[in-house]
Design brief:
single chain; GMP Synthetase, Chain A, domain 3; two-stranded antiparallel sheet; 26% strand
Length: 154
């Protein structure tokens, strides 16, 4: 099932590896940039944005489940995410592993349904579960005249 309003972003290069990232809909524009020495570090790197997306989705899924079971956790949930970056067998830099740590604001012992929540909340994280499977990537390259110079591999 395809969602009616698929998420989209528009990126515009401002300098070297620095891009304005426009989410549309009145959401403030972000700056994305590679870390030095490749970029200037003026904004989050693509790997940091990936970690943020997965971490945000995981903490959202946990919050959704906590709210669904009316646990009434006081305080705020928080998350920390990390990406292990390294070289694959072909010597190319890749995200080798993502790690997310979610923090509850209260003791787990004080909540009856927490076991059920912890057993299933990850399945409701659209981004995290997709990344964990491996996301098929379709790449198209179009020149300045609108000609497709590289179509997606099938």
């Amino acid at each position: 099932m395809v969602e009616v309003s698929d998420p989209w972003v528009t990126l515009k290069q401002t300098q070297d590896f620095c891009f304005d990232i426009d989410f549309g809909g009145g959401i403030p524009t972000w700056i994305g940039d590679e870390r030095p020495p490749l970029g200037g570090g003026r904004g989050p790197s693509p790997a940091q944005l990936l970690v943020a997306a997965v971490s945000n989705c995981m903490v959202d899924a946990l919050y959704f489940a906590v709210r669904k079971f009316n646990l009434g956790l006081s305080g705020q949930l928080s998350a920390q995410g990390w990406a292990e970056i390294g070289r694959n067998d072909a010597g190319r830099m890749r995200v080798l592993e993502l790690r997310v740590v979610l923090h509850l604001s209260q003791s787990a012992n004080s909540h009856l349904h927490l076991d059920r929540i912890l057993a299933q909340f990850e399945e409701f994280c659209t981004v995290g579960r997709s990344v964990a499977q491996g996301i098929p990537l379709q790449v198209t390259v179009v020149d300045s005249l609108g000609q497709v110079v590289k179509a997606p591999s099938r």
